[in-house]
Amino acid sequence: MKKITIAIDGFSSCGKSTMAKMLAKEVGYIYVDTGAMYRAVTLFAMRNGMIAPNGEVNRDELKQKMQTLRVEFKLNEQTGRAETYLNGENVENEIRGMEVSSHVSAIAAIDFVRTALVEQQQRMGRDKGIVMDGRDIGTVVFPDAELKVFVTASAEIRAQRRFDELKGKGVEANFDEILNNVQQRDYIDSHREVSPLRKADDAIELDNGELTIAQQLQWLVERFEERV
Ligand code: C5P
């Protein structure tokens, strides 16, 4: 069976990664969460004092240090899930917190950050057989992907899912703060100059607000089977 490239893009917390992960497992493909890569760079900038209290980023310093920065994924043998590593350290939990979430869109709007991460993502997908989720996968990273999905759901539904996810992990969460963060990231992600979030012309739109996880997987597998 021929291998294809699958791009899943959409707004924050719309369940893209759940969909992408499930599909990759179902069809035996590699899964790459590109948001985790932008989050790891953000954590690096935060830890190294490159983000001022007003949110301003010291771009010159970040640009210099970008060369020393290594973001990788390693499989956790126990859970069977890929986890994010920053310069050899497992940062999977730390990158999901609210502090990283509140700065990540500013970091992801920086051109040299995107250039470096997009190059790495393209290398990861060189041999196809990959499901990648993010904001610019169908438009910039893999414009020739055979299957492109653009996922949407209302901001309230997305904030509720994120709230439930954090609560489930035992993390203190405030619904209004999360809704605010989701809306703010939507705005920055769709209005930035470099690779703004938009649906690729040949992407299929899926509003998953009212769909169960099983229905989403079935829909994805059907689209996949049409293309292989
Ligand atoms: O997918 P997730 O919500 O973890 O992504 C975090 C942030 O990283 C997004 O809000 C967006 O600003 C940025 N991002 C991006 N391009 C991608 C993936 C994520 O700009 N391909």
Automatic annotation (TrEMBL):
Q: Where does ATP bind?
A: 10-18
Q: Which SUPFAM superfamilies match?
A: P-loop containing nucleoside triphosphate hydrolases
Q: Which reaction does it catalyse?
A: dCMP + ATP = dCDP + ADP; CMP + ATP = CDP + ADP
Q: Which UniProt keywords apply?
A: ATP-binding, Cytoplasm, Kinase, Nucleotide-binding, Transferase
Domain Cytidylate kinase, chain residue ranges per copy: 6-224
Q: Which GO terms describe its molecular function?
A: ATP binding; CMP kinase activity; dCMP kinase activity
Gene3D superfamilies assigned to the protein according to its UniProt record, in alphabetical order: P-loop containing nucleotide triphosphate hydrolases (3.40.50.300)
A Gene Ontology biological process noted in the UniProt record is: nucleobase-containing small molecule interconversion
Top-rank EC class of the record's enzyme = transferase
Which domain of life does the protein's organism represent?
A: Bacteria
Task: Write out the GO cellular component annotations.
Answer: cytosol
Q: Does the keyword Metal-binding apply?
A: no
Q: Where in the cell is it found?
A: Cytoplasm
Q: EC number(s) of the enzyme?
A: 2.7.4.25
Keyword Iron applies: no
Q: Name one Pfam family in it.
A: Cytidylate_kin
Stored NCBIfam families = cmk
Identify its protein family: Belongs to the cytidylate kinase family. Type 1 subfamily.
Q: What is this protein called?
A: Cytidylate kinase
Q: Name the source organism.
A: Hoylesella shahii DSM 15611 = JCM 12083
